[in-house]
Amino acid sequence: MSENKVERVLTGKVVSSSRDKTITVMIERKVRHPIYKKYIRRSTKVHAHDEKNECSVGDTVRVVEAKPFSKTKCWALLEVLEKSVAVDHIA
Fold this sequence. Notes:
The protein is mostly beta strands.
């Protein structure tokens, strides 16, 4: 008996990377309102494991579902799709 496991892969933006080896990723999706038929943005935040601490706030990343690392962290960083551009503010 072979098991066909489907890996859940999500794409989102890093909104926090303050903890060691952990990033918070916000995944946005659009759903259609059942009555008004207008598309509404819904978001979900997930905690993901970043082994090399390579992500910073604003990066676009792809995360994959994994075994639980802690109480709230059950996603792992798959790849960094786009790095954020750091802008220095001149006063």
